Amino acid sequence: MNIKLKIWRQKNKNTKGHFEEYSMSGVEEHMSFLEVLDLLNEQLFQAGQEPVAFDSDCREGICGQCGVVINGQAHGPIRSTTCQLHMRHLAEDPSFKDGSTITIEPWRSTGFPVLRDLVVDRSALDRIVQAGGYISVNTGAAPDAHAVPVQKDKAEAAFEAAACIGCGACVAACPNASAMLFTGAKVAHLGLLPQGQPERLNRVVNMLNQHDEEGFGGCTNIGECAAVCPKSVPLEVIARLNRDLGRALWKGTVAHS
Question: Which candidate among 10, 132, 218, 239 keeps its CA 20 to 30 Å from the CA of 183?
Answer without folding.
Answer: 10
